[in-house]
Amino acid sequence: MMNSLRNFALSLVGITLVIGLWAMASAFWSADLPSPMKTWEESKLYIMQPLEKRGEMDQGIGLLAAYSLVRVAKGFLLGILFGAPLGLLLGASQLLSKMFDPVIQVLRPISPLAWLPLGLVLFRQSEPAALFTIAICSMWPTVINTMHGVRAIPQDYINVAKVLRLSPWKRFTKVLLPSTLPYMFTGFRLSLGIAWLVIVASEMLTGTPGVGGFLWQEYNSLIYSHILLCILTIGVVGFTLDRMMAFVENKLRTA
Amino acid sequence: MRPLEITSLTKTFYTPTGPQTVVRDFNTKIQPGEIVALLGHSGCGKSTVLSIIAGLQDATAGGVVIDGREIDGPGLERAMVFQSPSLLPSLTALDNVLLAVDQAHPKNRRKQNRERAQKYLRLVGIEEYGSQRPAELSQGTQQRVAIARAFAMEPRFLLLDEPFGALDSITRCELQDLLVDLCAAKPRTVILVTHDVDEALLLSDRIILMTDGPEARVGREIDVALPRPRSRTAVMDTPAYFAMRNEILEFLESHSKQFQH
User: Fold this and answer.
1) In terms of Cα–Cα distance, which of A48, A44, A81 is closest to A226?
2) What's the CA dihedral at B73, B75, B78, B82 to 10 degrees?
3) For a FRET experiment, which of A12, A60, A109, B29 has its CA 20 to 30 Å from that of B149?
4) With contacts defined as CB-CB under 8 Å, which chain A residues touch B74?
């Protein structure tokens, strides 16, 4: 109890220090950087009325974040829908994994900024292009972790499956899936993190309403305080998502 | 019913440092209803022999014949207890046993198999833990579930691969007594791999002593002519027990010396 109180106090000190640095930077270094106070004044409306819709882009931060979250959820689900089965296949088959490992290693480090134009070419619309980008960027941790999960199934369980002559379906549901699930979830967590990183880039380039779209619009309108508002929102939402996934992951590990 | 025949069984592993023949020309016949112990030093290849009988590994030469047919993989007429409990972690104790019963007897009614799984959990003395998952059970209790799983299949052959090797000595004694009871209740063909001399003498009708690897083979066979039903204390009081025990220890001793020189 004392310890968690102390940790909380320490993190408050850290936050205060960073805000102090920010204030100093805006006062002495860059006149264009809005001070913390100014940021708060100009963002108050968006934070205090988070669900207010005044125009296509001029909306409460809660609504904007919700648009982004829905888009991320779609792209993320799409990504793991392809990623998890792909990981299972690659983990189960030496042949496939040798065949596709180089491809994956090359595709994995490609930035969302590079995928998005290809998505636009392929789908001709910004929304599917954004989902394509999120899916293809975020699926790799799921693929790789699932693959490792399959490879890490203890030999004991494989022997039991052989001795009991389990059918492929029973091997899948009783042995493979339960042992792989914790690994998969680690992959899901990392994938969701990436999906949230990608959202900003894809919204910026497509100009769709959401935190990233709003951020880019406000930059073009020279309202710099809202850039900071968006940055903070992105961070807080990403942090919350990660905590939530970690919670589920822990439940799975102990179950 | 015809015996299980192991003929000229040879197993070679191809390692980066060259081929390693673990077992060479292993021969024996195991009669229906017989309890045979494979005894030898650690690493002598006795588990390899059992694993080939189970169909988990292929023989390099020779083979295992059941009813005139050479085995080519695992079969439900052969049930196995591994050194570690090897229970599927996502299933409860009862479901682990039930899965095996369902596999061995797919035509039975669900209810019938369920009752049989429960019966065997009761026989190994852990009926009350049926609804718990392996992670919630002690190592000894998990191994009881594994024994129940194998026996509940009511297989023709029971293959036990150092089933008590990982347990503390008190639990080991308890489970050895349990195995004596289970085998007395319903005679079965059992092949037990062990490096525990007393365990082999308590449980088996015949002990196959293996020479040390590499290239292990049958060194000597000893008929354990102790009366059944056996109990640990009664068995230890007979002079025959000590004579056999000394013979085995001498054999193991001399072979471990050979190995060192």
Assistant:
1) A44
2) 60
3) B29
4) 162-165
Residues on A contacting B at a C-beta cutoff of 8 Å: 156-157, 159-160, 162-166, 170, 174-175, 178-179
3-state helix, strand, coil in chain A (%, to 5): 85, 0, 15
Task: Check the CA dihedral B112-B113-B114-B118 and report its sign.
Answer: positive
Domain B1-77+158-229+239-253: give its CATH architecture. Answer: 3-Layer(aba) Sandwich (3.40)
Q: What would the pLDDT profile of A123-150 be if each residue is shown by its tens digit?
A: 998 889 999 999 999 999 999 999 999 9
Determine whether the interchain pair A164/B90 forms a contact, defined as Cβ–Cβ distance below 8 Å: no
Residue spans of the domains in chain B: they are: 1-77+158-229+239-253, 85-155
For B202-235, how does the pLDDT look when each residue is reduced to its tens digit (9 = 90+)? 999 999 999 887 888 888 898 998 888 888 888 8
Q: Which residues of B touch A179 (CB under 8 A)?
A: 89-90
Give A40 to chain B, closest Cα distance, Å: 51
* 3-class SS of residue B223: strand
Structural domain includes residue A2:
no
- Residue A108 belongs to domain spanning: 64-254
Q: Is residue A202 part of a domain?
A: yes
Nearest in space to B117 (alpha carbons), one of B144, B151, B85, B141: B151
